[in-house]
Amino acid sequence: MNISKRHNGNETYFITAVDKRPDFISLQMRSLQKFCVGEFHLVVLNNSQNKKRAKLIEVQCRQSGAKHIRVDFNDREARSSHSESVFRFGRYRNPNLACSYPYHWFVKQHLSGLAGANVVFIDSDMFLIKPVDFRVLLSTKSLFFVPQFRGAVVQNRPEVLYPWNGLMIADATDARLRLDQIEWSPKIQKGFATDVGGASTEWLEIATRDAPSSELLSFGILSISSDLSQTKSQISLNGSWNALLENSSDSDNWRMISSDSINLAARILNCATPNIDAVLSRRLRLAIDTLQSETWPDPLWIDFLSAPEVGLENFIVHYKSGSNYLKWATPEYNFR
Length: 336
Known about the structure:
Number of helices: 9
CATH topology of the largest domain: Spore Coat Polysaccharide Biosynthesis Protein SpsA, Chain A
Shape: globular
Number of domains: 2
Radius of gyration: 20 Å
Distance between the termini: 34 Å
Low-confidence stretches: none
Strand content: 25-35%
Number of strands: 18
Strand order of the largest sheet: 3-2-1-6-9-8-12
CATH architecture of the largest domain: Alpha-Beta Complex
Structural class: alpha+beta
CATH class of the largest domain: Alpha Beta
Helix content: 25-40%
C-alpha cells in the first residue's frame, strides 16, 4: 500500500510491526478511535514469516481499517544496515533483529512519504488509555522518546544513550530531526551491547541538540498478584533500572530495594536521589489507580508510558503480558 501523499501536519500515522498477535490490531485500532484526537491512520507492517499468520494479519487490517504493508525480507538490504545476515533458514536469527529490521526497512522505503505528518512508532501491544491530541503534543516538542542506557551515568550523562523502539513520537515536518537517518539496528557501542535502536546514538545526539525534544518515561510493573496494594512489586524504569517495592500495611508509601545505580534512577525520574522513594511511591499509586478500573490476570506485567515534562501521565498501557514467549502467557491467560 502506498501511503505517500501531501500532508499538512494534521494527520498522525501510527507505525507498528505485527507478527505473533494479529488479534491486537483491532484492539489497538479501537484504542486509537477512542482516545486519539484528530485524524489518524494505523499502519501495520506485516512482519510475519509464517504464511498463514501473514494472511491473518492482512485480513485483520482489512476488517479494522488499518493500512497494511507487507515487509520485504531482503537479505542484501539487511546486511547493509545490520552488518550481518538478519535471517537464517528463512527466519529471523533472534528477536532483536525481528524488531529492528521492519522499522529499518520502513524508514528506508516509506518514511519519505510521510513528510509533513506526525509519526508515532509504537509496539503492537501498546494502547492509548487517555485522550491525546498529537498535533498539540508535537507543537510543544518535535520529538518524544524513551531513552535507553548503557554504561555508567556521570554528571547526568550516560556513556551510551539511544532511543527505544517501543514508542517514539516525532514531527516529520521538522527537518532538523533527520528522521530518515535513524538506524534501528542493534550495535556494539563503546564496548556495550545494545538492542534495537542501539546504532542511533549519534542520530539521537544530533536530533536532541538541534530540535526541541522530551524524554518519555516507561514505568513497568511485574507482580505475581494484580492486587498491587497487598503485595511486593518488581518495578522497572525505562527497562533500564529495576527495583523491588514493598508496601507497608499501615502506609501508602513503598520501601524501595535495588542494587541498580541510584544515579541512573535519579536521571530517569528527573529528581534528587533522596526523593527517589517518594517519587516511585507516587508513580506506583498512579499505576494502581489506573489499573483498578479493569480486571487483569495474574501475574501482572504492564508498562505505563508518561510524558512528565508536559504533564501527560500514564497515557499508554503496554500490555507486555501478551508476549507469547512468556511461559505463563497462554491463550487462556490473555483471554481475560
